[in-house]
User: Fold this.
Amino acid sequence: MSRFIVVCDVDSTLINDEVIDLLADAAGTRDAVAAITEKAMRGEIEFAESLAQRVGTLRGTSAKALDDVLGAVTVTNGARQLVHAVHEAGGYIIAVSGGFHEILDPIATQLGLDAWAANGLEVVDGAFTGRTYGPLIDAAAKANFLTSFAKKKRVPLSSTIAVGDGANDLAMMNIAGLSVGFCAKQAVREAANVNIDVRDLSLVAPFFGRRAS
Assistant:
């Protein structure tokens, strides 16, 4: 593979955590968020609606919670090695998240990702309004982000690798040259070309002919 792109989901893939759950802990709404997430997983509500409902539970919570959450988030084992291996091989590594810029931006910068996209959490007077801002990053937006980045870098989709764990990743995985389920939910496992069941992102490197170190 010459020029190529690896695109990663963020929550439970690039990082070990689900950021909305950590924010809900700070807001005291963990049970409500879990119930909404469960409905979304059963297909009873669409991602956009589930995101709106879950973020809505944060209304009035101090935005200082973001600092605590950022401190609690852990990057998945092997992520740094994967970024190094991709760049060493002349590729690009990007991330796209149904989560939030406020957490992803510093992590992506620290890891040295080439591009990333996520939703934004609206804050007024130091507190969450319970709304997001900016374009909605859902399954279709994830696929579009990969497509537009590949076009910009003149990399064919056949030379892309998509890594994810949940239903929101299926659209981008379906258009990628290789789809990798990462400790994935059953629907993703069944759709993926290959599955990794160990929480070590460096195991993606052999798929573009490298050994991460």
